[in-house]
Amino acid sequence: MATLNWRTINIDALDPESPANFDLSTLTPAVTPLSTADVQSLAGQIRQLLRGGDSQGALQGALENPPYGADEKGKEVHLATIIEILQSIRQADMSPILSQIYSAPGGTEALDVLMKYIYKGMAQTSGASTSRNITPQATGFSQIHARGGGEGGGQAMSVLLSWHEKLVEIAGPGCIVRVMTDRRTV
Amino acid sequence: MAPPEVHHLFHHPIADHSFSADRQTLAVARENVVDVFRRAGAKYTLQDELTGHDKTVTGVDIAPNSGKIVTCSQDRNAYVWEPTPEGWKPTLVLLRINRAATCVRWAPSETKFAVGSGARLIPVCYFEEEDNWWVSKHIKKPIRSTITAVAWHPNSVLLAAGSTDGHARVLSAFIKGVDARPEPSAWGERLPFNTVCGEFLNNTAGWIHSVAFSPSGNALAFAAHDSTLTVVYPSAPEEPPRAVLSISTQVLPFMSLVWSTESEIIAAGYNCEAYRLQGDENGWQLAGSLESKGPKGVQDSREESALNMFRQMDLKGNTKDDTKLNTVHQNTINTIRSFEEEGGHVTKISSSGVDGRVVVWTL
User: Fold this and answer.
1) With contact defined as beta carbons under 8 Å apart, do B269 and B333 qualify?
2) For residue A178, which residues of chain B lie inside 8 Å, CB to CB?
3) WD repeats located where (chain B) (predicted)?
């Protein structure tokens, strides 16, 4: 007993009233688990629509079935699908498509999902380009070189930024707040 | 529509405000004290200062009939202030909580009040004649996080509570010896203390800022940090509700809401202006802002004379002064309350916010 260090005892584990002792997942909305294969087959169907020229249908289909219950891999697959759709739509068509989705039943929900993917896409393109382009210098600060390499990410980013602008025009800042608040991540 | 009556009291955030029933007295939580204002003509002048809390006061409520003021603070205490000829006399309330108190509301019966707290429980406080002090009974289950808002049902037994765990709950706060046995309602028939009559979560599980029962008590509305407002219509005890309607708005989240009639809710928050929402069991929608911005814009443009324009250019390097919001409140609205009622309808509401203003609106 003498060797027991009192300060390292996890007192939360001993207190039945402690918030550490209950399952936090009961507080979040229930999501149904989804396998990566299911996400992939959905991605296949959506691509088919896209190839048929129905980009709005493809976008709507992708936004109505967000794989909240999938693992990281499945979520990446769906993100890639949505980014592909977003890049295939011309700038002039963005606003009409968004307002049509917004006025459809469940439209605000779909646009919230789109906002989640726009932010996730932004996080990913910047993450990928920084890890590729920034090399720590001996001087202690990082320097970005190979500007040309950064342009690839920059182009994806500019597409996402113009989508973001158009989306906020229609769904308002409430949409951004919902994405930040939502416990169901994509 | 009459223009809003604006009272700019000071340059501090107002956490909560409350008017007395005759609307002559206004109590406002300012930092560690509660300022009591008295109406003099068209203005409210500072009459008294209730000091006693050592930390920020988070809630204040004046009982409409007895005139007693209850305050609660982050110092984990609550006081009941009684008006006496010598001034306000405080009585400490035994809350027995180990975290900050966040909000407080008198029950309509005025024999008890509920305090929200960060200790994951709700002390329901009532007066013990024998010992001559206010004691509390704790509602504990199934609260999993800080309580941010409490609201009473008109029967003074049911209590709605909003929490940062994303749930709005309807609980029984029945205290033997204080309350009469309540009439059975759609929320429940037998209601011993701490009965959970309903637990509601919206889609995103954003935390709850405000809850309120409709005037009849047969519907519950709550606003959450995901910019939604949800209205729940219960069907029968122990059964799923008849309708749960969630409205996703385009504006920033609402901090406070009040029912004006059974089919209209006024909600306000981070957008610095109050909005009207209308609907019934079949659906709710945002009907628009309480402020009419049209005439105000015209006035603004008239003031921009050539002289003024050049003066602005000279002083600030720009022609338009864009440091002012075109809403009456210049910052987040924290609390809105019913100010005047007529035949069961709220005709005027009051709002207070981070900008130190209290505004009375005619609906």
Assistant:
1) yes
2) 204, 206, 226-228, 248
3) 50-82
Topology of domain B5-362, CATH: Methylamine Dehydrogenase; Chain H (2.130.10)
Domain boundaries, chain B: 5-362
At residue A150, the pLDDT reads 47
B142 preceded by a cis bond (ω within 30 of 0)? yes
Smallest Cα–Cα separation from B293: which of B274, B279, B265?
B274
Closest alpha carbon to B165 in A21, A26, A164? A26
Which ipTM value was assigned to this complex? 0.81
First to last CA, chain A: 49
Closest partner CB to A27 (pick from B144, B250, B251)? B144
The tally of CA atoms less than 13 A away on the side-chain side of residue B293 is 9
Residue located via tokens 């009051």: B350
**Structure tokens, B87:** 């001034």
Q: How far apart are CA A129 and CA B82, in angstroms?
A: 65
Q: Give me the residues of B, 94-123, that contact A with CB < 8 A.
A: 120
Question: Which tokens in the block code for residue B136?
Answer: 């509390």
CATH superfamily of A33-132+147-181: Actin-related protein 2/3 complex subunit 5 (1.25.40.190)
Read out DSSP for A9-59?
Answer: S-HHHH-TT-GGGS-GGGGSPP-----HHHHHHHHHHHHHHHHTT-HHHHH
CA dihedral of residues B252, B257, B260, B265 (deg, nearest 10): 40
Any idea where the domains of chain A sit in the sequence? 33-132+147-181
Contact B292, B4 (CB under 8 A): no
Q: Measure in Å the smallest separation between the Cα of A29 and chain B Cα atoms.
A: 6
CA B176, B177, B180, B181 dihedral sign is positive
What pLDDT digit, counting tens, does each position of B51-87 carry? 999 999 999 999 999 999 999 999 999 999 999 999 9
Question: Within 13 Å and on the Cβ side, how many CA atoms surround B290?
Answer: 31
Range name among B23-27, B30-34, B306-310 with the lowest pLDDT average: B306-310
- Contact between B203 and A29 using a beta-carbon 8 Å cutoff: yes
Note every long-range contact of A134-140, with CB atoms under 8 Å and residues 24 or more positions apart, other chains counting. none
Interface touch B228/A109, C-beta < 8 Å:
no
Chain segment A60-98, per-residue pLDDT in tens: 999 998 898 888 899 999 999 999 999 999 999 999 999
Q: Which of B132, B126, B122 is nearest to B111 (CA)?
A: B126
Q: B191 exposed, middle or buried (CB, 10 Å; 0-12, 13-18, 19+)? A: buried
- Per-residue confidence at B347, pLDDT binned at 50, 70, 90? very high
Cα gap B67→B70, rounded to integer Å: 10
CA-nearest of B13, B77, B23 to B51 is B77
